[in-house]
Structure formats: C-alpha cells, structure tokens
C-alpha cells in the first residue's frame, strides 16, 4: 500500500495548492473591488 500513500500525499499537496490559490484569488478580488471607484 505504498502507492496509495504516495497518491494520497500527492492529492493532499494538490488540495493545499488549490486552497492557497483560492485564498490568493479572493484577496486579489477584494483589493481590486476596494480600489475601484464605486459609482
């Protein structure tokens, strides 16, 4: 069951990267919306 462990850690890495990208995107969208002149 070594292969299962390997794929498991790979998916964990993928999920953590996805979460980081999601957080960065939310931050960028927030700052972009705040910096825009509201009409």
From TrEMBL:
It comes from the Bacteria. This is Uncharacterized protein. It comes from Burkholderia singularis.
């Amino acid at each position: 069951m070594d292969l299962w462990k390997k794929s498991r850690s790979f998916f964990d890495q993928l999920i953590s990267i996805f979460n980081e990208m999601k957080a960065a995107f939310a931050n960028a969208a927030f700052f972009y919306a705040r910096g825009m002149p509201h009409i």
